[in-house]
Amino acid sequence: MKRLNLKTWLLAASAAVAFTGCDLMKEDLEDCPTGLYVNFVYDYNIQRSDMFKDHVGAVMLYVYDDQNRMVAKKIVGDGFFKAYGRYVHISEEELQPGTYSLLAVAMQKNFSDALAAPGAKYRVAGDAIGDQRSQLSITLDHSPAPALAPSVVALPGTRATTFVSTVAPLDTLWHTLSTIVTPASQHPLQLTPAMLTPAATEYTWQRDGSIKSNGVSTVTVVKGEPTYATMSLIRDTKHLNISLRELDTPENVVDTDYDVFIIDDNSYLDCDNNLVQRGDSVIYRPYAQWTTIFDGKGLVANEHSAHYDLMFNRMMYNATNADDNAILCIRKKSTGQEVAVINLPYILSQGRTAYEINAYQPQEYLDREYDYRLEFFIKNGRWLFIDIHIDILSWAKRIQYVDL
Asked: Would you give the DSSP letter of residue 275?
């Protein structure tokens, strides 16, 4: 006769009790998972790892019914996501059984704190219960810009140029990329609630410019059962550091001698995170700038460098029409001479060659990367070459002026 050892018997008994309890306790569901459970990942980045816990501070989760009408909304922050394994729960009382689609917007800190901070804000509209999904939009604050020299004041085809405040850096914005549903029977929450792990996300860049993933468009909530979904986020807000070095007279470089700005038409995002060009060019100027000086001795050369930190909203790369791309302009204030006027998405996307093994397409690289560094070397009042740096790889690529 076969014998069951004590360990095997206890495991079987525990499983039976758990199954029976959740199957029969339909009136009191406190001990049994029901409703919709949503957790979040931010792994659509160059590091290809989930950095949600360390980067994101607050999430607004929206739930839409099969008529694309918002029926539920959750705002979660205040340090809730500081640990892995945190999920947002919408109970059966809040969400009736049915088929729904999800949308999420996230920021680096609480939404109320971001709105109360100085500087430009991301403002969400069309996010009230009952609103249609297509009504949701996000606009980055911008206002009438100070006068610029007439040579470069707007992108072709756009009207009066506007200005994004430089009082403070932008608070970082994330948007929905994909949603993955995990069958309840396979989800780790069933076995180890404290060790909830996200589902694996997969991304493939398509020839038409879209992102294909293993995500789904809808989730189905069943009465008396749990539904588990993982939402993947894409980071829209980017940072760029620019350094200027003069080859002829390096000791004369001072940050206040140059006007540095980005021009783009990218202040408005729709519900699907698409940039909606409204013919309203936006100017991004540095929120910080400074000059570093190193006085060499003997054979060590002197070095003066001007540095500028800028932040900007999601940037798109148009390979067929360069006029639609953002422009980086560097201008000498004393003469009005343009030191550089370049196609910024094109230059930044050249950094993808540091990751040849992954064969990133230009737009995929622009969406995955969020921290750029460009170093301009100037001669005779014009840029001679640019070094593109990937700091995490100690990698740099040089582009000559004649190459463009």
From this structure: B
CA angle 297, 303, 309 (to 5 degrees): 150
On whether the CB atoms of residues 328 and 342 are closer than 8 A, the answer is yes
**270 is written with which tokens?**
């729709």
Question: Are 104 and 233 a contacting pair, CB within 8 Å?
Answer: yes
Helix, strand or coil, per DSSP, at residue 16? helix
Q: Helix, strand, coil: what percent of the chain each, to 5?
A: 20, 40, 40
User: Look-up: residue for tokens 């940037």?
Assistant: 315
- Give 107-122 pLDDT, tens digit per residue: 999 999 999 999 999 9
- DSSP-assigned beta bridge partners for residue 211: 205
Hey, CA dihedral for 314, 317, 322, 328, is it positive or negative? positive
Residue 193's pLDDT is: 41
Look at residue 166 in the predicted model and tell me its pLDDT: 93
CA distances from 102 to 29, 71, 236, 286 (A): 24, 11, 19, 36
Q: What are the distances in angstroms from CA 22 to CA 28, 97, 152, 287?
A: 9, 18, 67, 55
Cβ neighbors of 357 (< 8 A, separation 6 or more) are: none
Identify the three-state secondary structure at position 351: helix
* Whole-Å CA distances, 210 to 353, 361, 365: 21, 11, 13
Location of structure tokens 């050892």 = 5
For residues 123 and 60, is the Cβ–Cβ distance under 8 A?
Answer: no
Q: Which residues of the chain have pLDDT under 70?
A: 1-31, 145-154, 159-160, 182-216, 296-302, 357, 402-404
Sign, CA dihedral 347-350-354-355, equals positive
pLDDT in tens, 285-318: 999 999 998 776 665 556 789 999 999 999 999 8
Q: How far apart are CA 153 and CA 232, in angstroms?
A: 37
In 5-56, DSSP assigns E strands to: 35-41
Dihedral angle computed from the Cα positions of residues 350, 354, 359 and 365, in that order, rounded to the nearest 10 degrees: -50
Say if strands 203-205 and 211-213 run parallel, antiparallel, or are unpaired.
Answer: antiparallel
Q: Give me the residue label for tokens 């029969």.
A: 24
- Burial string for 101-115 (b: 16+ CB within 10 Å, else e) reads bbbbbbbbebbeebe
Rounded Cα distance, 386 and 398, in Å: 5
Backbone angles phi, psi at 293, to 5 degrees: -130, 130
Q: Give pTM, 2 decimals.
A: 0.84
Query: Do residues 59 and 229 touch, judged by C-beta distance below 8 A?
Result: no
